[in-house]
Amino acid sequence: MALGNTFTLIELLVVIAIIAILAAMLLPALSAAKAKGKQILCIGNMKQVGLAFHSYADENNDYIPSTVDGPPLANWWDRSKIWKMIYPADWAWGGTGKQFYSSVFSCPSTAEYAPNTASRAYSMNSAYLQSAGSVDALNAHRRSLCSSPSKTLLFGEGYGGHIHPTSTFNGTTGIEPIFFYHKLGSGNPYAWISNLIYFDNHADSMNWTQYSHNSSDIFWTGL
Predict the structure, then answer these.
(1) Cβ contacts of residue 148 below 8 Å, gap of 6+?
(2) Share in percent of the chain as helix, strand, coil (round to 5)
(3) Are 107 and 121 in contact (CB under 8 A)?
(4) Quick count: other Cβ atoms within 10 Å of Cβ 86?
(5) 23-43: per-residue pLDDT in tens?
(6) 105: Cα separation from own chain's centroid
(7) Are 180 and 170 in contact (CB under 8 A)?
(8) Distances (CA, A) of 59 to 33, 53, 82, 139, 200
(9) For residue 158, what pLDDT is reported?
(10) Residue 16 and residue 146: Cα distance in Å, rounded?
(11) Which of the four pLDDT bands, split at 50, 70 and 90, describes residue 1?
């Protein structure tokens, strides 16, 4: 008896091969779209934190938080309680764990690289108002002293709570590195970008070569 319109084994194998080829072509595009989505969400988080900075300054005689405070040393978001500008005062701050990583103080890509290290998050510019870009992590400064808010870094993505002109790439060497969580192409380090917020609260994204490494640049000092 005739079997009618059925597929032969060879035809089935051809169909499976075509599906596999299409999947191989689509998966990189889907991964790139996912990475782009996380980068956009990260920028949204950072814009909220930037607004919290300005709300904090409005209530504290124009001062933004110091990068760290001590003793004991702690990151700016906790010591200054700047999170109160966004979350209720009874927010159970722990600094680590699920609540931190689901907050606007953490990049959504952070958990992929540092699931147990809360300090790999958003880091303040500790060279603000420092001649030759020297580091001043302990003192609070007025935002109004920034000569060009649209050109000066307020905070970016990093480790340890603050970043500066001598920060390194992704923590491979040195301390207070700038972290580049968002891979939007091929190659290293050019394909990895990092989000940042300026004093006027506009957002930008840069790769390692686009970041200023000039210690006297207005990007860092605001002078």
Answers:
(1) 218, 222
(2) 35, 15, 50
(3) yes
(4) 16
(5) 777 776 666 777 788 888 899
(6) 9
(7) yes
(8) 40, 10, 11, 17, 17
(9) 83
(10) 61
(11) very low
